[in-house]
Amino acid sequence: MSKDISNRQPLITTLEEANEGEARAQSVMSAEQQHSRHADAQRHRTRYVFIRIVTYALLVALLLYAFFPIFWLLSTSFKSQGEAFFYPPTFWPHQFTLHSYQILPADQQGFVRYFANSLIVSVCTCLLTLLAAVPGGYVLSRFHFRGVRAVLLVILATQMFPYAVILISLYTLFRQLHMLNTYPALVLAFTTFSLPFSIWMVKGFCDTLPTDLEEAGRIDGLSRVGVLVRIVFPLIIPGVVAVGFFAFLNSWNELLYAVTLTTSPDMRTIPAGFIGTYVGEFQDRWPDMMAASVVVSLPIVILFTLFQKQLVSGLTAGAVKG
Fold first, then answer.
1. CA-based angle 8:14:16, to the nearest 5?
2. What pLDDT, on the 0 to 100 scale, is given for residue 103?
């Protein structure tokens, strides 16, 4: 009995040593795994921080690139005429002056007249574009007649022609009708390049609306016009605001049509008038032009601020067909 016990004692010792060795090996492997995981996590964290830094650096560079013209516009508008031609140029005005802003209200035949002409033409163009685009887009969205796709393609194809080609035809037509140097000529001309895209935008907004509401209105006795005015139009108001803003902005910034269709300074709009007033053969009035540009940008900024929600929802409403 004692001999068996003495024989088992080395075996137990060997098993204990093996278990201890296995435990030490596992502890070593566990430490190595923890160290490896910690190193991997540290590498991932470093890579994430590096990507974030590069991303923010690129965003800051893009913002500086985008907003530098606006900064230069504002900075030059507060400079004197002489400082605007300094070389190297000064980023900040050495002599801060409001002279370029103070002379704008007194320029009745220049800045004030150009501003009034642009406002009249842009508002009329916006209203005329909406008056034609809303029913046109609704009809092309709801009436599936033969040739509707061809009509849509023709409307879209008008955007492919260069402005100069259309302008020559419009100039010849308005000259024969004795409409040059008139508001109707400018409004009709500006509407020609705003209307096709506006019709497509309104059609996209109408495509997102369910037809059940219109069918219910028809059952209640509404005509097609009544359905458009009382049901469809209130639902696509964000889209209508986006279309109107697009038409207004196009006509407000248009230069080529305004220069060609007007020969009298009294009928010039802002872009055409600024070229003839502030940039000349013997003098370039850059501070005055920059100050006038800041003032004429305010209506666009105010409109965008007032209708920001409608514009964002309107521009995204027609992107997905429901």
1. 105
2. 85
